[in-house]
Amino acid sequence: MAARDKFRQMIGRKAASDNLLAGDKRYIKIRTLGKGTYGIVLLAVDNKTRQKVAIKFWPRGSEAINVDVQRELHHHSGFNHPNVIKFHEVFLTPTHVALAMELAPNGDLFKKVSNAKGLPESEARGIFQQLILAVDYCHRMGVANRDIKLENVLLGGDKKKPIIKLTDFGFSKSVQDSIPTTICGTLGYMAPEVLLGQEYDGMKADVWSCGVMLYVMLYGQYPNEDPRATVLQDIQIPDRPATLPDVKHLIRCMLERDSQRRIKMEDICQQPWVAQGLPEDFLTQNEQFVSASAQHMPGQTKEEINAILYEAGLQKPEERKAREAALKAVQNLQHSTTSGMATDGSSGLGSGQGSTASTFNGHQLQDSHYGGMMEY
């Protein structure tokens, strides 16, 4: 083969590896939106609808395609709300599992807040009202997000009057699952009970995270230089910029270290600062959205999503149980043959998603998003 032909072949292979949609008949890549530890996100055009979409990818194989991905897709596919990124479909490429979803064209909330070094109180209120509507809807659907942060709130609509879109349900958990104990999420937004590794209520932990978001929107910084300090001491509210007593009271109620005393989601909208400008039936809208979601026929059923994931490498429940039993048997054997030596009891089954998704970089507002994976 001539040197020129070899070079062309090499370039062709590289282009295909850079474009995870190469050869796909429906979606055409426009550009890469972001890369992260758990995947990559592309901006693409849907040939069927001619709309731009965001497509998130996970590499095939049991290491990446695990129960956390399955849970994320199950939860997201069931949501149908104007303040939640719309789920379109899951499909396979030769090398990846792909999730096509609504595109939020105006970036994420972190960029907006950091560029402005905090938002005017009226603007923060409008965004916060929408955030509470989105999170309350998820809770009414029986799902705690467990990773609410600025970077996971995307901006649609008009730039001057944005419509927020909650995204990324990789740490979400249903109330029908076991009681959460996993330390997960993003360090600066974690509630004290999560940091302590105790059993906790994911929905109450979400309220804390929303409180951190409101604090950051207003003051342009995180509540504590070391977020682990929240376990031991109450947060302090800056004197500048000046904010109304009502909003300070709300922040303190949301950032209450004792989760039993922390304000409930349904009570947040009764607070004077939040209720300003809202219709009286603000939260009853979510009852309608939940009812509509129950009747909504998603493009793919959970069974269809499971079939795609199993083909991509997800272990079936019986396979996981057999593997866990085999590992436990090996551990028991090692324990019985080891004299006077301590073992840590680790099963080695961790997916890597039980730790924080990103690091916290101190009191000043710095990007806590791990790799900008959903950075639009």
Automatic annotation (TrEMBL):
Region span, Disordered: 331-376
Pfam families membership: Pkinase (PF00069)
Gene3D superfamilies: Transferase(Phosphotransferase) domain 1 (1.10.510.10)
UniProt feature, compositional bias: Polar residues: 331-341
SUPFAM superfamilies noted in UniProt: Protein kinase-like (PK-like)
One Gene Ontology cellular component: cytoplasm
Keyword ATP-binding: yes
Keywords: ATP-binding, Kinase, Nucleotide-binding, Serine/threonine-protein kinase, Transferase
SMART domains xref list: S_TKc (SM00220)
InterPro entries registered for this protein in UniProt: Kinase-like_dom_sf, Prot_kinase_dom, Protein_kinase_ATP_BS
Cross-referenced PROSITE patterns: PROTEIN_KINASE_ATP (PS00107), PROTEIN_KINASE_DOM (PS50011)
Protein kinase domain mapped to chain residues: 27-274
Ligand binding (ATP): 56
PANTHER family: KP78A-RELATED, MAP/MICROTUBULE AFFINITY-REGULATING KINASE
Name this protein carries in UniProt: Protein kinase domain-containing protein
Record organism: Coccomyxa viridis
